[in-house]
Design brief:
This protein is α+β, with helices and mostly antiparallel strands and about 110 residues long. The chain has three helices and four strands; from the N terminus they run E-E-H-H-E-E-H. It has one domain: Enhancer of rudimentary (ERH-like fold, 2-Layer Sandwich). A four-stranded antiparallel sheet has the order 2-1-3-4. Helix 1 packs across helix 3 and helix 2 runs antiparallel to helix 3.
């Protein structure tokens, strides 16, 4: 799997109308978008709080409790998008957060 173009598909609720999709140039950007969705969710839940903090397990619970989440990653060799589900998303977010916590170089998580 190369770090190529990605499409993030999220359905936060069981209602089909809650489905959204977004395109990103890299898996790193896509993972950052998932984290941002969680942070926006927290802002809506805790509207009156100036500062909101969370831990990794709360982020993982959020991803687990989404009605559906899939990342489609473009495979240049086969010229098609390949789907990766919730388990993959959680694993890659965890890896991304671990990487950013230990590496402050500003480089992308996936090269």
């Amino acid at each position: 799997m190369a770090d190529g173009s990605c499409i993030l598909l999220i359905q936060p609720l069981h209602r089909q109308g809650s489905r959204t999709y977004s395109r990103y140039d890299s898996l790193t950007e896509c993972l950052q978008a998932v984290i941002k969705v969680f942070e926006e969710h927290l802002k809506n839940v805790f509207k009156n709080d100036e500062k909101i903090s969370y831990n990794v397990s709360q982020l993982m619970d959020f991803v687990q409790n989404l009605s559906d989440i899939v990342i489609l990653i473009y495979n240049k060799e086969f010229r098609r998008y390949e789907p990766y589900g919730r388990k993959f998303v959680k694993s890659k977010i965890y890896g991304y957060l671990a990487y950013t916590a230990t590496n402050k170089s500003g480089k992308s998580y996936y090269y």
